[in-house]
Design a protein that fits this description.
There is one protein chain. The chain is mainly β. Helices cover about 5% and strands about 50% of the residues. The strands form 3 sheets. An 8-stranded antiparallel β-barrel has the order 8-9-10-11-13-14-15-16. Strand 5 and strand 6 form a beta hairpin. It starts with a helix and ends with a strand.
Amino acid sequence: MIRCASAVVLALALSATLARAQDTVLTVSVPSADVYQGATNVTPVVGHVSSGTVLPVLRDLGSWVKVAWPDAPDGVGYVHVTMGRVGPADGNAPAPKISRRAPVAPAPPATTIPPTQPAPAADRVAPRGQPNPRPISHILGVGGLVGSMNNFGATARAWRKNHLGIQLSFTRDAMTSDVAPGRVTALQVEPGVMYALFDRVSDYVWLRPYVGSALTFRHQTLNLAAPLALEPASDNGTGFRVFGGTELTYAGMTQFGLSVDLGYRHVPTAFPGFDPKPLSVSIAGHWYIR
């Protein structure tokens, strides 16, 4: 008897949960809304819906909603919430009318967009809550970084559609030694290139693994404290750095990318006893303004 009652309670709870999950809909309020393959506008567009279309929401991701879309490779699509209103379903509303992407004749090669390429910038949706919204495409980002060896500074990063990127960082670090007196501070500029291996987009995050290399222009200054206080000695050197890491973007905040990378840096030793560690770990955050 107890088992039977427990089964009934569990069934009612699951039914209530499923009913709540199916009660949320997105009502399209723009003339035409794009349906994307993933929860970011760098994924291909798999269809379009017209104004007034009511889409049952499978999952609410904050800035995006997940909807059923048979034309997509995995049977689901994603629509940005700025394309309509998210709310409870109206039992008296007419049945949903979804306009799937109609087949079109092949376009000339010069204007064809391969399915693996992101949608044109003009078709990308804009972030919510901005009076003059601008498309998000992860083209240019600025931010800061922190790393091992008391390393910190500013960084800028730009990506192209073919997964190539460039990065420029300005950092400062400081070193002390167990075998030599004083303290060495260093300023360095590192221009570099990167290549993104692939894009992995899920319901909540967008992962972009990358590898890269950079030139290192380093200016070092040795300061000696009392009683050996002398004029600071300086030196300039050039080296290189190779690195690899991953950039992570959360679906609810698509303009911000958080990166963690591991790198190997080789620079000349200007002052005996102050040898920079070749391996380093850095964490960087970029706010994409384009």
